[in-house]
Amino acid sequence: MTNEAIQLGDLLDQFNTSDEVGQNRLVYNQQWLRNQRALILLGQEHDAQATVDDYGNVSLDFPGQEISAPIATGSHMDTVRQGGCYDGLYGVLGGFCAIQKLYQQGHLPKKPVRLISFSEEEGSRFPAAFTGSNYYTGHQQVTPLVDEMGITFDQARRDAVRQLQTIPGVRRQRAPLPASFTELHIEQGPRLAQAHQSLGLVTGIVAQDRYDVTVYGQANHAGTTPMAQRQDAMATASHLMAELYDLANKSSKSLSFTIGEIHVSPNVSNVIAERCTFSIDCREESDERLATFLTAMQVVIQHFENVTVKQTLHVPATPLSQALRKQNAEIATRMNFPFQELFSGAGHDSQIMSTVTPTAMIFVPSEAGISHAPTEYTKMSDLLYGVALLATSLSVQANES
Amino acid sequence: MTNEAIQLGDLLDQFNTSDEVGQNRLVYNQQWLRNQRALILLGQEHDAQATVDDYGNVSLDFPGQEISAPIATGSHMDTVRQGGCYDGLYGVLGGFCAIQKLYQQGHLPKKPVRLISFSEEEGSRFPAAFTGSNYYTGHQQVTPLVDEMGITFDQARRDAVRQLQTIPGVRRQRAPLPASFTELHIEQGPRLAQAHQSLGLVTGIVAQDRYDVTVYGQANHAGTTPMAQRQDAMATASHLMAELYDLANKSSKSLSFTIGEIHVSPNVSNVIAERCTFSIDCREESDERLATFLTAMQVVIQHFENVTVKQTLHVPATPLSQALRKQNAEIATRMNFPFQELFSGAGHDSQIMSTVTPTAMIFVPSEAGISHAPTEYTKMSDLLYGVALLATSLSVQANES
User: Fold this and answer.
1) What separation, in Å, do the N-terminal and C-terminal C-alpha atoms of chain B show?
2) Number of cross-chain residue pairs from A and B with Cβ atoms under 8 Å apart
3) Helix or strand holding residue A392 (H, E)
4) Keywords in UniProt for this one (chains A, B) (predicted)?
5) Is the CB of B279 inside 8 Å of chain A's CB atoms?
6) What are phi and psi for residue B117, nearest 5 degrees?
7) How does DSSP classify residue A129?
8) What's the pLDDT tens digit per position in A168-219?
């Protein structure tokens, strides 16, 4: 596997930058544009037909003996702020390497093969995630979005996409849907690394609900307002948060519950808090168990006064293709690659793609479970296990009758 | 009392502005400078000797028959951001009206009388409070302070003070200490208003401790990190805060306990909190009871792991002059003014002045207990009760042998 090692490592070096803290490929910014352009040129060098749609999703179509819907792989080009070198990019460049491996067999596969580099998945620049795969699959888009600098989504999108669509040879259109989609991705959690497994086959993606909970109080002087006469939003919020954590810890083992964001007003040490808003992120492998927890959560919240709850996200659990997972398990077994089946606690483009085409995911380990950080790391040998499994999977799918 | 009503109301109108949200006389800014200048000119019109020290504290000395240390009154000129029309300013302008009333008696008092307008009490521009009265009383100052705009305390101070010290007739020096100090101030709490009392005689100022408590966790992905493997700073912080509130609510009735400020890092809804820092503001009339609570608080905190506590303020309880309070109580009784004795839950220049001279405070009600806000309000009749009691108190003190 030496040749691929050099190629994938070189590509990762070329597409990541080392002149700032972490990777900052926010959708439509300069680094993003540089990479999508480089990917198009790379594909064209290898005889792929490049297509760029109006959201900046790049499709590289490699020919097959037949004219049919392609077998697709890929992931997203964008990162979080100060992100790592692998999240998203590994699925794009690893996908490219897998396709190269397939075409190095010396004959065209029956079906065409496609590499997709989705424009945006992280929601790190504009307050919306999965805009790339949502557009790709024809889902409705919310576009009146503005970034931190006041630039609108549509302005940024048009400026960047124009520069990709005017590259010679690029087809401008929404690519027709593929016959299947397989995404290679880092796990982003610690399970594969802890189990010393190089490969994970993803059974599904968790259900996810997010809420903003706001506790209302009355701002007043911390020294002159008698305790008995206070409406202290922080006093209420701290008890409510503690009870919700207690409830979560008593719930099913597959539940994850996080209060990651708090905003207090006026947030001054000698003023009683007037308002405290905190986020709730809860995820479950099972829609039913998540619903059970949410019902219990509402009961807890109802015991508190002056509290409002606003749902900000609701994503049902997404089972991925059982047929593809079974096929990948058989291939891995045949190749003598140990693997583990697992659920994904993070969202992925695959959950959008799975609404329109059979979809599979292959995970490789994240050292110490770290992702979305400059210290995100996966050993090259693990990265190459993923590429090898994907190459065979694409080959099998593309040569089936 | 009609004449004083017009005069005090006119003065308050003249020294407050109506062209922005609330009063924003941060120390050494334009509004502050305008008012200290206007006060100096007002004093000079009424034959007072104006003195401005190097911190911008203004002293207006009105003559007595004898040459001796003056009987002083006054308060501070600065406000919080978006402050009210009365906090500080009422003690300055009400003090001026009381002195006028005294001199309208037709003969000079035995002792001279002084009005002080302290430069700064609120700590609203630079991260230090009481810089005016601390300088006035010769206490050590911490001056390497910088405001939000990056302007240093010393630069702002020198620019503003130069403009006051160059007003013709102004003496530039630190004024010698007065024989006593009586401060007129709004209560800032609800007790007088709820008791329908127009006057409060302050027995002392609360002891006050502030802390920053930091809970450390480990930032990680909210979806992919198993609950059992998390170090969630918010999970710990919410339980700790709830237990501290429970402890405070079981403690003495004169304790006030407030968590007003929280900072979470990275403060993102789908990332487990790496760090949560919250403030604790606790106040008590009694140093002993405060110490008892703080000991119990440390015991609670020690039950939690990965927590550090940093003390940011320690002010012992300040008893004010019993002799002056007794005298003021006798005067009020003689004038048929009902009053109530009470503790101050807020800090005041009086707690600094009481370290160098016998000090008293006279409170008037704050409607609904609101202060530090544009809606801060005290009825004119209550304001005038305060001025009348202060005028008689100054007269009695200045004419004692």
Assistant:
1) 29
2) 200
3) helix A380-399
4) Hydrolase, Metal-binding, Zinc
5) yes
6) -115, 100
7) S
8) 999 999 999 999 999 999 999 999 999 999 999 999 999 999 999 999 999 8
Minimal C-alpha gap between A217 and chain B (Å)? 12
Q: How confident is the prediction for chain A on average, in pLDDT?
A: 95
Under 8 Å between Cβ of A257 and A213: no
The predicted complex's ipTM stands at 0.85
What domains sit in chain A, N to C, each tagged with a CATH number? Answer: 2-205+318-399 (3.40.630.10), 207-315 (3.30.70.360)
Look-up of token digits 């304001």: B383
* CB within 8 Å of chain A, chain B residues 220-259: 220-229, 232, 234-235, 237-239, 241-242, 245, 248-249, 253, 255-259
Average pLDDT, chain B: 95
Place of tokens 């576009």: A143
Structure tokens, A327:
């096929």
Radius of gyration for the alpha carbons in chain A, expressed in angstroms and rounded: 23
Nearest to B257 by CA among A226, A277, A239, A304: A226
Chain B residues within an 8 Å CB radius of A219 = 373
d(CA A175, CA A74): 14
User: Hey, is A74 helix, strand or coil?
Assistant: strand
Q: How far is A321 from chain B (nearest CA, A)?
A: 21
Tokens matching residue A1: 């596997």
Say if strands A318-319 and A262-265 run parallel, antiparallel, or are unpaired. unpaired
Instruction: Please name the member of A224, A245, A262 whose beta carbon is closest to the beta carbon of B262.
Output: A262
Number of residues assigned to chain A: 401
How far apart CA A136 and CA A130 sit, in angstroms, is 10
Per CB-CB distance under 8 Å, the chain B contacts of A242 are 238-239, 241-242
Quick one: how far is CA A10 from the chain centroid?
Answer: 24
**SS3 assignment for chain B:** CHHHHHHHHHHHHHHCCCCCCCECCCCCCHHHHHHHHHHHHHHHHCCCEEEECCCCCEEEEECCCCCCCCEEEEEECCCCCCECCCCCHHHHHHHHHHHHHHHCCCCCCCCCEEEEEECCCCCCCCCCCCHHHHHHCCCCCCCCCECCCCCEHHHHHHHHHHHHHCCCCCEECCCCCCCEEEEEEECCCCHHHHCCCCCEEEEEECEEEEEEEEEECCCEECCCCCHHHCCCHHHHHHHHHHHHHHHHHHCCCCCEEECCCEEEECCCCCEECCEEEEEEEEEECCHHHHHHHHHHHHHHHHCCCCEEEEEEEEECCEECCHHHHHHHHHHHHHCCCCCEEEEECCCCHHHHHCCCCCEEEEEECCHHHCCCCCCCCCCHHHHHHHHHHHHHHHHHHHHCC
Nearest to residue A41, comparing CAs of A60, A21, A56?
A60
Question: CB contact, 8 Å: B106 with chain A?
Answer: no
**Tens digit of each residue's pLDDT, chain A (401 residues):** 445 555 899 999 999 998 888 999 999 999 999 999 999 999 999 999 999 999 999 999 999 999 999 999 999 999 998 899 999 999 999 999 999 999 998 889 999 999 999 999 998 899 888 999 999 999 977 678 899 899 999 999 999 999 999 999 999 999 999 999 999 999 999 999 999 999 999 999 999 999 999 999 998 889 999 999 999 999 999 999 999 999 999 999 999 999 999 999 999 888 899 999 999 999 999 999 999 999 999 999 999 999 999 998 888 999 999 999 999 999 999 999 999 999 999 999 999 999 999 999 999 999 999 998 899 999 999 999 999 999 999 999 999 97
